[in-house]
Amino acid sequence: MNLTANIAGFNFDHILLNAAGVVCQTSDELDSVLASDYTGAVVTKSATPSLRPGNVSPRYHELTNGLGTINSMGLPNEGFDYYMDYVTQKQTDKPIFFSVAGLSKQENLDMLHKIEESEFNGLVELNLSCPNVPGKPQTAYDSETTEEILTEVFSFFTKPLGVKLPPYFDIVHFDNIANILNKFPLAFVNAINSIGNGLVIDEETDTVVIKPKGGFGGVGGPIVKATALANVRALRQRLNPSIKMVGTGGVTSGRDVYEHVLCGADLVEVGSQLAIEGTSVFERLEKELAAILTEKGYNSLDEVRGQLKIIE
Ligand SMILES: O=C1NC(=O)NC(C(=O)O)N1
User: Is Flavoprotein among this UniProt entry's keywords (predicted)?
Assistant: First the structure.
């Protein structure tokens, strides 16, 4: 059975990997994702130029009803050089995604110049969608800024690069962002990041469950699946076929993976469920996915990808 994918000439023997931010801040965590027999790659925690402690705690919470998570981590990471060392020294035959999230256009350009001039030979994920840095917007909600950044990036950057997008909720917004992204030789687009600035209340104490930003944080998990699938589907329908799709959001079962592929995903990332279940989640998800393909008489994900049916 063919459960593989290809982006920018990189072969992925499995389509599952972590979502940036989950089990990927330290080299041990990154190693644990790579070590799984059921991951095709790993993505680093989004790097900022310098080490960052992130927001005050409590900053992460799993909803007691199992419907998802809320976080306001605030881009805690070991700093750009730590991840540059990891990705350039790591011996692995699995592709590595190097995620970067500068707090300004210049920070992003500086990090990307360093990657361009480095020995790194993986893929880069430019995170334009972190909702949790107080005072900072989710960049990809600003069309002009997004186009400006990508224009400057592609004036010098030649390695495979994709963008991590926030969820959009309006058909015209899907049209707008796709029109912008289609102007650039992107290797992939990753949809979605968490749904920004949700609010979860503790029913015992009538208090928010996370401290930063008065309790506002990015929402993930099952509760965001419908939005995640819509964004993967809408972008797949609009983006040039040369731009591959990474589907993220709401994956807790093989069926969820299957639905992301139906909507057009080439790779599928696991965030909240990986945080909750640990790296054994990848084996469970791939086996559940394989069982669905067998049940439906498919032998390859190529027969499924993008084949979502509509009601005529
Ligand atoms: O892009 C991000 N998305 C999130 O949901 N959280 C993290 C963070 O806060 O670091 N970053």
Answer: yes
